[in-house]
Design a protein that fits this description.
Mean pLDDT: 84
Number of helices: 15
Shape: globular
Radius of gyration: 24 Å
Number of strands: 18
Strand content: 15-25%
Structural class: alpha+beta
Helix content: 25-40%
Low-confidence stretches: 6-29, 310-317, 319-336
């Protein structure tokens, strides 16, 4: 049994958080937030809202319409605009939150200027950063104190977890461009798992009485304390020639060299294809990713089956059994059931700057590199480990901003089920500040991977290895804490 520590009461309660959050949302507890007071505190002056909208539409901060709004606001005799006390913008996928998506969008637009609510179907986060935020910065550079204060105090709201990750990735570009400060981000729990949301105190589910709860959420984002989150850069280098359907969080790039401190054994192909991206929660290889891939494929083929978080989870559970996560056919080659046959792991462990090879347990069929204390809808598979076990294994207590990933394995569905109800911990492998996975096909023609809930099928090559290299992004992401 892989449980070196007993799960705490707080950890055990995490699985019930969705229900508790929803019930709490139905109560009358908490301070009433007057709609008009909130709207006044978070809404931009009209000329800024309209100028940002036009800059995004034209994809040009120097567009004539943008200049006209600025000139009108600063014309002789015009009354100086006052900056909002807590300026907010919101990113929402109107397809998220089940049938509530369009209604939620309308409700948010009613609580602030409608130009401050961006539907991902129409405006992408990078477009806001490149044009909308640049418009605000341009006005500030021209001596507009209202625009300057709005930019400095700006905070972002996004939901669910997939949208949050997308937004954080785009905001992270501000660090590289030296466009500071980077706005911190709060979360609306619109997704299915909501692990980012849970980790920062925003709850595990969309509350039943969301129309009133959304006011409290906006108020919390406006006033909440700021905390830090590690971001992780993911590089995939694979032999060229294979077609790869990558998730939107990964982008194909020119060939990027692997870390030269770790020498590659064997020959490398003449040409490689490289993909890069950033993740915030987890990266995984193996059966869990295969199940997720099957679920996503089914949902894309038959979208009417996915009408909300509960139906999603039921379908996902059923697909787990169908894919063999619980029952591996007896005819399968037993040697193919373990990732050890195709995988090598190298890591820079706790307090070490040197690469070293880490043994792959022969029993595991899925390996996860986890950044957050929440995985699979609020579970903590790493566990709440006792101090003596941490010392024995050379581990430290896990946090979302400690510069380390927790790497663990699942043996099969039954083992994963015991871990996810927190009766035992997962199979601990290592804690690391950098990781390299090396995969070689052999009898395997493909492997399955996923990053922050986005799965894909990774082709395997018998002659040359595929490499996945993970390193921490130098700058932290800024998050607003809910509770």
């Amino acid at each position: 049994m892989d449980s070196p520590g007993t799960p705490s009461r707080a950890a055990s309660a995490s699985g019930r958080s969705s229900v508790i959050d929803s019930i709490r949302g139905c109560t009358l507890s908490g301070v009433r937030i007057p709609r008009e007071d909130l709207k006044k505190k978070i809404t931009f002056p009209e000329y800024i809202r309209l100028a940002m909208r036009e800059a995004i539409r034209a994809q040009d901060v120097d567009a004539a319409a943008v200049a006209q709004f600025y000139e009108a606001a600063h014309a002789e005799g015009a009354e100086p605009a006052e900056p909002p006390e807590f300026p907010l913008i919101v990113f929402i996928n109107s397809k998220s939150g089940g049938r509530h998506g369009p209604e939620l969008k309308a409700r948010l637009q009613d609580l602030m200027g409608e130009e401050q609510v961006f539907d991902l179907l129409a405006v992408k986060p990078h477009e806001f950063v490149q044009y909308g935020l640049s418009c605000l910065e341009k006005f500030a550079s021209l001596g507009d104190t209202c625009a300057k204060e709005t930019r400095e105090k700006l905070r972002v709201v996004a939901g669910g977890d997939g949208t949050v990750g997308w937004v954080l990735g785009c905001l992270g570009e501000l660090n590289r461009q030296d466009r500071l400060p980077v706005p911190p981000t709060g979360i609306i729990p619109l997704g299915t798992g909501n692990d980012l949301s849970r980790s920062f105190g925003w709850g595990g589910s969309f509350p039943f009485n969301w129309k009133s709860a959304i006011k409290r959420t906006l108020d919390k984002v406006a006033r909440g304390p700021i905390t830090l989150l590690d971001s992780w850069h993911l590089l995939i280098s694979t032999p060229a020639g294979e077609e790869l359907e990558i998730p939107y969080s990964l982008k194909e790039t020119e060939a990027v060299p692997l870390d030269e401190e770790l020498e590659v054994e064997g020959e490398l192909p003449e040409k490689v294809s490289c993909y890069q991206g950033v993740f915030y929660n987890y990266f995984s290889i193996g059966m869990d990713a295969q199940v997720a891939y099957g679920f996503h494929s089914l949902r894309n083929e038959k979208p009417y089956l996915a009408q909300g978080p509960i139906s999603n989870k039921l379908i996902y559970s059923g697909y787990s059994c169908k894919q063999g996560w619980f029952f591996t056919p007896c005819s399968s080659d037993p040697g193919l059931r373990s990732l050890k046959n195709i995988l090598r792991i190298y890591a820079k462990k706790v307090n070490s700057s040197e690469w070293e090879q880490v043994p792959v347990p022969s029993s595991v069929r899925s390996i996860v590199a986890l950044n957050l204390p929440s995985y699979g809808s609020g579970r903590n598979p790493w566990g709440n480990l006792k101090p003596d076990y941490l010392e024995k294994r050379g581990f430290v207590e896990a946090h979302a901003d400690d510069g380390l990933l927790e790497v663990f394995g699942f043996k099969q569905g039954w083992h994963a089920s015991m871990v996810m109800v927190e009766l035992i911990s997962a199979k601990h492998i290592t804690q690391a500040s950098a990781i390299r996975f090396e995969l070689r096909g052999g009898e395997w023609t493909e492997a399955y991977m996923q990053v922050d809930g986005e799965p894909w099928k990774q082709p395997m090559n018998k002659e040359f290895s595929t490499f996945v290299e993970i390193k921490r992004v130098p700058h932290h992401s800024l998050m607003v804490k809910g509770e």
